[in-house]
Amino acid sequence: MGLTIKPLHPLFAASVIGVDLKRPPDAAMLAELQQAFDRHAVVVFPGQFIDNESQMAFSRLFGPLELMPLVPGKPPRLPHRELFDVSNLDENGRITPETDERRIYNLGNRLWHTDGSFRKIGARYSLLSAHIVPPSGADTEFADMRAAWDALPEAMKKRIDGRIAEHSIWTSRAKLGGYVPTSQELRARPPARHPLVRTHPGSKRKTLYIADHVSHIVGMPVEEGQALLRELIEFATRPEFVYAHRWMPGDIVLWDNRCTMHRATPFDDTGHPRDMRRTTALDVEEPGEWVEEPVVVAP
Ligand SMILES: [Fe+2]
Protein backbone atom coordinates (compact mmCIF):
# COMPACT_ATOMS: atom_id res chain seq x y z
CA MET A 1 0.00 0.00 0.00
CA GLY A 2 1.00 3.61 0.02
CA LEU A 3 2.30 4.10 3.55
CA THR A 4 5.95 4.71 4.33
CA ILE A 5 6.71 3.64 7.90
CA LYS A 6 10.05 4.59 9.45
CA PRO A 7 11.01 3.36 12.94
CA LEU A 8 12.02 6.18 15.31
CA HIS A 9 13.39 3.99 18.11
CA PRO A 10 14.77 0.42 18.33
CA LEU A 11 11.77 -0.82 20.37
CA PHE A 12 8.70 1.17 19.31
CA ALA A 13 7.52 4.47 17.75
CA ALA A 14 7.45 5.12 13.99
CA SER A 15 6.70 7.94 11.61
CA VAL A 16 4.07 7.39 8.95
CA ILE A 17 4.01 9.23 5.63
CA GLY A 18 1.57 8.76 2.77
CA VAL A 19 -1.82 9.40 4.36
CA ASP A 20 -3.90 12.57 4.68
CA LEU A 21 -5.78 12.31 7.97
CA LYS A 22 -8.20 15.02 6.84
CA ARG A 23 -9.82 12.45 4.51
CA PRO A 24 -11.63 9.35 5.82
CA PRO A 25 -9.37 6.33 5.21
CA ASP A 26 -10.75 3.39 3.19
CA ALA A 27 -10.85 -0.09 4.75
CA ALA A 28 -7.44 -1.12 3.38
CA MET A 29 -5.76 2.06 4.65
CA LEU A 30 -7.46 1.73 8.04
CA ALA A 31 -6.20 -1.85 8.36
CA GLU A 32 -2.67 -0.76 7.49
CA LEU A 33 -2.80 2.06 10.04
CA GLN A 34 -4.17 -0.28 12.70
CA GLN A 35 -1.28 -2.65 12.10
CA ALA A 36 1.19 0.23 12.57
CA PHE A 37 -0.52 1.33 15.80
CA ASP A 38 -0.50 -2.24 17.19
CA ARG A 39 3.16 -2.74 16.45
CA HIS A 40 4.72 0.68 17.11
CA ALA A 41 2.28 2.06 19.76
CA VAL A 42 3.45 5.66 19.10
CA VAL A 43 2.93 6.86 15.54
CA VAL A 44 4.01 10.27 14.26
CA PHE A 45 2.25 11.82 11.24
CA PRO A 46 4.35 14.83 10.20
CA GLY A 47 2.95 17.79 8.23
CA GLN A 48 -0.77 17.04 8.65
CA PHE A 49 -1.93 20.57 9.70
CA ILE A 50 -5.29 19.09 10.63
CA ASP A 51 -8.42 21.12 11.49
CA ASN A 52 -10.49 20.45 14.61
CA GLU A 53 -13.35 18.67 12.85
CA SER A 54 -11.08 16.31 10.90
CA GLN A 55 -9.12 15.45 14.03
CA MET A 56 -12.32 14.59 15.89
CA ALA A 57 -13.64 12.56 12.94
CA PHE A 58 -10.42 10.53 12.61
CA SER A 59 -10.26 9.84 16.37
CA ARG A 60 -13.90 8.72 16.41
CA LEU A 61 -13.01 5.84 14.10
CA PHE A 62 -11.44 4.18 17.15
CA GLY A 63 -14.01 4.83 19.88
CA PRO A 64 -16.24 7.46 21.47
CA LEU A 65 -14.31 10.59 22.41
CA GLU A 66 -13.51 11.59 25.96
CA LEU A 67 -14.86 15.01 26.95
CA MET A 68 -12.56 17.60 28.44
CA PRO A 69 -13.47 18.48 32.03
CA LEU A 70 -13.90 22.20 32.57
CA VAL A 71 -11.89 24.02 35.20
CA PRO A 72 -14.51 25.83 37.32
CA GLY A 73 -14.69 29.54 36.53
CA LYS A 74 -12.51 29.24 33.39
CA PRO A 75 -14.30 29.35 30.03
CA PRO A 76 -12.89 26.89 27.48
CA ARG A 77 -10.80 28.23 24.58
CA LEU A 78 -11.65 25.51 22.08
CA PRO A 79 -15.12 25.14 20.55
CA HIS A 80 -15.68 21.43 21.31
CA ARG A 81 -15.37 19.53 24.57
CA GLU A 82 -13.95 16.62 22.57
CA LEU A 83 -10.82 18.75 22.04
CA PHE A 84 -8.57 18.80 25.10
CA ASP A 85 -6.77 22.09 25.32
CA VAL A 86 -3.11 21.23 25.91
CA SER A 87 -2.01 24.85 25.47
CA ASN A 88 -0.83 27.63 27.74
CA LEU A 89 -3.45 30.00 26.29
CA ASP A 90 -6.63 31.44 27.76
CA GLU A 91 -10.01 31.86 26.04
CA ASN A 92 -8.71 35.05 24.35
CA GLY A 93 -5.57 33.38 23.04
CA ARG A 94 -3.30 35.09 25.58
CA ILE A 95 -0.60 33.21 27.54
CA THR A 96 -1.98 32.26 30.95
CA PRO A 97 -0.13 33.69 33.95
CA GLU A 98 1.90 31.45 36.27
CA THR A 99 -0.88 31.28 38.86
CA ASP A 100 -3.74 30.42 36.47
CA GLU A 101 -5.64 27.29 37.60
CA ARG A 102 -5.51 25.80 34.09
CA ARG A 103 -1.71 26.04 34.09
CA ILE A 104 -1.48 24.55 37.56
CA TYR A 105 -3.83 21.73 36.57
CA ASN A 106 -1.76 20.95 33.45
CA LEU A 107 1.54 20.76 35.40
CA GLY A 108 0.56 17.20 36.38
CA ASN A 109 1.11 16.23 32.72
CA ARG A 110 4.84 16.49 33.39
CA LEU A 111 4.63 13.30 35.45
CA TRP A 112 4.80 9.90 33.73
CA HIS A 113 1.27 8.73 33.04
CA THR A 114 -1.08 7.11 30.62
CA ASP A 115 -4.22 9.02 29.69
CA GLY A 116 -7.44 8.11 31.43
CA SER A 117 -6.07 5.36 33.71
CA PHE A 118 -8.03 7.02 36.54
CA ARG A 119 -11.27 6.05 34.76
CA LYS A 120 -13.02 2.70 34.80
CA ILE A 121 -12.93 2.82 31.01
CA GLY A 122 -9.51 4.19 30.14
CA ALA A 123 -8.22 5.73 26.94
CA ARG A 124 -7.35 3.70 23.84
CA TYR A 125 -5.70 6.19 21.49
CA SER A 126 -4.78 9.79 22.18
CA LEU A 127 -4.14 12.03 19.19
CA LEU A 128 -2.24 15.25 19.75
CA SER A 129 -1.97 17.89 17.03
CA ALA A 130 0.63 20.66 17.08
CA HIS A 131 -0.63 24.11 16.05
CA ILE A 132 1.91 26.44 17.69
CA VAL A 133 5.23 25.10 18.98
CA PRO A 134 7.67 27.05 21.21
CA PRO A 135 11.24 27.54 19.91
CA SER A 136 12.74 25.10 22.43
CA GLY A 137 11.68 22.54 25.03
CA ALA A 138 8.21 21.00 25.32
CA ASP A 139 9.18 17.63 23.84
CA THR A 140 6.79 14.81 24.70
CA GLU A 141 8.51 11.69 26.00
CA PHE A 142 7.03 8.23 25.49
CA ALA A 143 7.99 4.90 27.06
CA ASP A 144 7.04 1.40 25.88
CA MET A 145 5.52 -0.57 28.76
CA ARG A 146 5.65 -3.86 26.82
CA ALA A 147 9.42 -3.60 26.44
CA ALA A 148 9.68 -2.64 30.11
CA TRP A 149 7.66 -5.70 31.15
CA ASP A 150 9.84 -7.96 28.96
CA ALA A 151 12.99 -6.61 30.62
CA LEU A 152 11.82 -6.83 34.24
CA PRO A 153 13.60 -9.38 36.43
CA GLU A 154 11.57 -12.59 36.89
CA ALA A 155 11.22 -11.99 40.65
CA MET A 156 9.59 -8.62 40.01
CA LYS A 157 7.29 -10.08 37.37
CA LYS A 158 6.10 -12.68 39.90
CA ARG A 159 5.69 -10.00 42.59
CA ILE A 160 3.42 -7.74 40.55
CA ASP A 161 1.49 -10.02 38.19
CA GLY A 162 -2.09 -10.23 39.42
CA ARG A 163 -1.83 -7.09 41.60
CA ILE A 164 -4.42 -4.32 41.31
CA ALA A 165 -3.59 -0.58 41.46
CA GLU A 166 -5.95 2.28 42.25
CA HIS A 167 -5.56 5.35 40.02
CA SER A 168 -6.85 8.87 40.68
CA ILE A 169 -6.37 12.07 38.70
CA TRP A 170 -6.16 13.92 42.02
CA THR A 171 -3.11 11.89 43.08
CA SER A 172 -1.00 13.20 40.18
CA ARG A 173 -2.43 16.72 40.56
CA ALA A 174 -1.44 16.75 44.24
CA LYS A 175 2.09 15.50 43.41
CA LEU A 176 2.87 18.36 41.02
CA GLY A 177 1.31 21.81 40.95
CA GLY A 178 -0.90 21.23 43.97
CA TYR A 179 -4.16 21.85 42.08
CA VAL A 180 -6.97 21.68 44.65
CA PRO A 181 -10.17 20.15 43.25
CA THR A 182 -13.60 21.36 44.30
CA SER A 183 -15.93 18.86 46.00
CA GLN A 184 -17.88 18.78 42.73
CA GLU A 185 -14.73 17.82 40.81
CA LEU A 186 -13.89 15.13 43.36
CA ARG A 187 -17.34 13.61 42.95
CA ALA A 188 -17.24 13.84 39.16
CA ARG A 189 -13.88 12.07 38.85
CA PRO A 190 -13.65 9.19 41.33
CA PRO A 191 -10.70 6.74 41.34
CA ALA A 192 -10.61 3.50 39.32
CA ARG A 193 -8.86 0.16 39.78
CA HIS A 194 -6.91 -1.76 37.13
CA PRO A 195 -4.48 -4.71 37.05
CA LEU A 196 -0.80 -3.66 37.16
CA VAL A 197 -0.02 -6.13 34.38
CA ARG A 198 -2.29 -6.60 31.38
CA THR A 199 -2.14 -7.99 27.87
CA HIS A 200 -2.05 -5.38 25.12
CA PRO A 201 -4.88 -6.36 22.76
CA GLY A 202 -3.16 -5.09 19.60
CA SER A 203 0.16 -6.96 19.96
CA LYS A 204 -0.92 -9.70 22.43
CA ARG A 205 2.18 -8.79 24.47
CA LYS A 206 2.13 -8.41 28.24
CA THR A 207 2.45 -4.82 29.40
CA LEU A 208 2.75 -2.78 32.58
CA TYR A 209 -0.22 -0.50 33.25
CA ILE A 210 1.25 2.09 35.59
CA ALA A 211 1.14 5.87 36.00
CA ASP A 212 1.77 8.63 38.48
CA HIS A 213 -2.02 8.59 38.90
CA VAL A 214 -1.63 5.49 41.12
CA SER A 215 -2.50 6.28 44.75
CA HIS A 216 -1.91 2.78 46.15
CA ILE A 217 -1.69 -0.90 45.35
CA VAL A 218 -4.70 -2.80 46.65
CA GLY A 219 -3.88 -5.02 49.65
CA MET A 220 -0.49 -3.38 50.26
CA PRO A 221 0.40 -0.66 52.79
CA VAL A 222 0.27 2.73 51.00
CA GLU A 223 3.99 3.46 51.50
CA GLU A 224 5.04 0.03 50.26
CA GLY A 225 2.77 0.40 47.21
CA GLN A 226 4.16 3.86 46.44
CA ALA A 227 7.75 2.59 46.77
CA LEU A 228 6.93 -0.28 44.39
CA LEU A 229 5.29 2.11 41.94
CA ARG A 230 8.34 4.42 42.05
CA GLU A 231 10.65 1.49 41.38
CA LEU A 232 8.52 0.35 38.43
CA ILE A 233 8.23 3.83 36.90
CA GLU A 234 11.98 4.41 37.24
CA PHE A 235 12.73 1.06 35.62
CA ALA A 236 10.16 1.47 32.83
CA THR A 237 11.36 4.96 31.87
CA ARG A 238 15.07 4.20 31.61
CA PRO A 239 16.53 5.85 28.49
CA GLU A 240 16.45 2.63 26.45
CA PHE A 241 12.64 2.51 26.70
CA VAL A 242 12.04 6.20 25.90
CA TYR A 243 11.39 8.03 22.64
CA ALA A 244 11.32 11.85 22.92
CA HIS A 245 9.28 13.62 20.28
CA ARG A 246 10.44 17.06 19.23
CA TRP A 247 7.36 18.80 17.85
CA MET A 248 7.03 20.62 14.54
CA PRO A 249 3.91 22.60 13.62
CA GLY A 250 1.49 20.36 11.71
CA ASP A 251 2.60 17.15 13.47
CA ILE A 252 0.08 14.67 14.77
CA VAL A 253 1.18 12.00 17.19
CA LEU A 254 -1.08 9.08 18.03
CA TRP A 255 -0.25 6.83 20.98
CA ASP A 256 -1.75 3.71 22.47
CA ASN A 257 -2.42 4.39 26.15
CA ARG A 258 -2.79 0.69 26.90
CA CYS A 259 0.92 -0.06 26.46
CA THR A 260 2.80 3.24 26.80
CA MET A 261 3.38 6.06 29.27
CA HIS A 262 4.21 9.63 28.36
CA ARG A 263 5.05 12.96 29.93
CA ALA A 264 5.33 16.59 28.92
CA THR A 265 8.70 18.29 29.38
CA PRO A 266 9.16 21.93 30.47
CA PHE A 267 9.52 25.01 28.28
CA ASP A 268 9.31 28.76 28.82
CA ASP A 269 5.55 28.57 29.25
CA THR A 270 5.04 32.13 30.42
CA GLY A 271 7.16 33.52 27.55
CA HIS A 272 6.11 31.53 24.44
CA PRO A 273 2.72 30.32 23.21
CA ARG A 274 2.15 26.60 22.69
CA ASP A 275 -1.07 25.39 21.08
CA MET A 276 -1.68 21.64 21.10
CA ARG A 277 -5.05 19.89 20.85
CA ARG A 278 -5.78 16.35 21.98
CA THR A 279 -8.61 14.02 21.10
CA THR A 280 -8.93 10.73 22.95
CA ALA A 281 -10.79 7.61 21.84
CA LEU A 282 -11.98 5.65 24.85
CA ASP A 283 -11.19 1.96 25.22
CA VAL A 284 -14.72 0.73 24.63
CA GLU A 285 -15.54 -2.61 23.00
CA GLU A 286 -19.32 -2.14 22.89
CA PRO A 287 -20.74 1.34 22.20
CA GLY A 288 -23.35 0.95 25.00
CA GLU A 289 -20.55 0.38 27.52
CA TRP A 290 -19.76 4.06 27.63
CA VAL A 291 -21.64 6.47 29.84
CA GLU A 292 -20.64 10.12 29.86
CA GLU A 293 -19.40 11.32 33.22
CA PRO A 294 -21.38 14.12 34.85
CA VAL A 295 -20.43 17.47 33.39
CA VAL A 296 -18.67 19.82 35.80
CA VAL A 297 -20.50 23.08 35.29
CA ALA A 298 -18.42 26.20 35.56
CA PRO A 299 -20.06 28.55 38.10
FE1 LIG B 1 -1.33 12.79 28.87
Overall pLDDT score: 92
> CATH homologous superfamily, by name?
Clavaminate synthase-like
Please compute the radius of gyration using only Cα atoms: 18 Å
Strand order of the largest sheet: 1-2-3-13-5-15-4
Report the end-to-end length measured between terminal Cα atoms: 52 Å
Helix content: 10-25%
| Name of the CATH architecture | 4-Layer Sandwich
CATH fold field value: Double-stranded beta-helix
Q: What bound compounds does this protein have? A: fe (ii) ion
User: Which segments are poorly predicted (pLDDT under 50) over 5 or more consecutive residues?
Assistant: 294-299
- Assigned CATH class: Alpha Beta
Overall structural domain count: 1
Shape: globular
* Sheet with the most strands, sense and barrel status: 7 strands, mixed
Number of helices: 8
The secondary-structure element order is: EEHEHEHEEHHEHHEEEEHEEEE
Share of residues in strands: 15-25%
What would you call the structural class?
A: alpha+beta
- The count of β-strands is 15
Describe this entry's structure for a reader:
With 299 residues, the chain is an alpha+beta fold. It has a single domain (4-285), classed as Clavaminate synthase-like (Double-stranded beta-helix, 4-Layer Sandwich), CATH 3.60.130.10. Helix content is 24%, strand content 23%. It has 8 helices and 15 strands. The strands form 4 sheets. The chain has a 7-stranded mixed β-sheet with strand order 1-2-3-13-5-15-4, covered by helices on one side. The protein has a 3-stranded antiparallel β-sheet with strand order 12-6-14. The radius of gyration is 18 Å and the shape is globular. Residues 294-299 have low confidence and may be disordered. The structure holds fe (ii) ion (FE2). Fe (ii) ion is lined by residues 109, 113, 115, 262. Fe (ii) ion binds next to loops.
